[in-house]
Amino acid sequence: MESFNASYRFVIFLILLYSVLPAQAQQHPKQLPDGTEGEVLTTPLIDSATGKPPKRNWNEFNLGFTTLKVGGGYLYEFVGFNQDDMAKAQMDSAGVEAKNEFKVRDSRIMLSGAFKTRRTITWKLGLMYDGVTEAWWVRETGVLVALPEIAGHVFVGRTKEGFSLNKVMNGYAGWTFERQMALDVIPIFGDGIKFMGYLPKPRIFWNAGVYADWFSEGQTFSTYNWQTAFRVGWRPIYDPAHHHVFHIGASYRYGQPLNGQMRLKSRPEANPAPNFIDTGTFPSDHSNHYGTEVYYTKGPLTVGSEILWHSFTSPSTDNPTFFGGDVAVTYVLTGESRVYSSESSIYAFVPVEKPVFRGGWGAVEAVLRFSYLDLDDGTIEGGKLWRITPMVNWYLSKYVRFEIGYGYSVLDRYQLKGVTQLFQSRIHFQIL
Fold first, then answer.
1. pLDDT classification of 25: cutoffs 50, 70, 90
2. Which of 248, 272, 321, 325 could form a disulfide with 311 if both were Cys (CB 3.0 to 4.6 A apart)?
3. Which domains does the chain have, with CATH numbers?
């Protein structure tokens, strides 16, 4: 571990040294690559008509050595439960209770900007209040250096591991209340170095990173000594003018659990809910995670699926492999199309062409998703859970979104099959 830390620091030094070397003047990208939390304020260009910088938004500032953009978000939600007798018995066996609840999901503060250098160097600072732990966490924070000489970018700091499109994309931009449960079993953030590459003409993208959990220990279900993650993909169809995208990708992750202990658990895609499935703690030397992703967008329609496998070296529990995935269909009833970022290889927010506050209807999106996670394998009986979610997202403006949905879930655990119905709503505010 000590040699790993030394190598890690040496690589950081080389990247920072290279970042200050001269380069041709580059245009700062407004949307940063893979794993970012929205946009940054870029160095303003001179308006050719006036000879002055263009007018900035109220949350954008031009400082002496960098630009600055201030952003934030707030999520407040309700979840109600209706459980049959089997489901109630399962909750009793697990020692938890599914209670109707209003709760703050999270609130966050985001600062970002671009240094006024010839080489594109942008930075981000993110803080989030987590409603479950009632604590503040450090979110994506670090420096992104553009390296056009090798067709890519390098991020140094705390960032999202490059695993899974749905895991990497901004949670506020998701089409459902929560990411699918099969993604819950791995951490979302890591502290390390990530390279993001691209070949524009063949439409190929990839990322590779090495991380440790120096700052994220205790902030996820499972903490690792260190981990590495890779993601690669291809866009055989990419026609942004006609909102036509076909995206194919695959991910791999290797991790060494902290203290040789692992525990996987997941809520039924409702943040105020208790954990329905749980492996308990079991010994593991290392883990391998595999993921596939396929997404297709044509106008207001988006269809996507991600399938995941989580395999653990654990001889005492017969080396279990856990499986899960989802299939989702979204359709924007008001005609808008979900934005797909070619640099990030992820989906962004639904644009709102006619905000409610300007006399329009906003944007309305209908969603249907099926998701599944099996935590039974080897000698481990963590349970199996599937859920069907129909829901509607109403984007009143680019700053305000209201969500309402229903969930029908079936839990197979403790030799019982219990049905839980979930009634959820959420309002969220964002400044990007």
1. very low
2. 321
3. 2-431 (2.40.160.10)
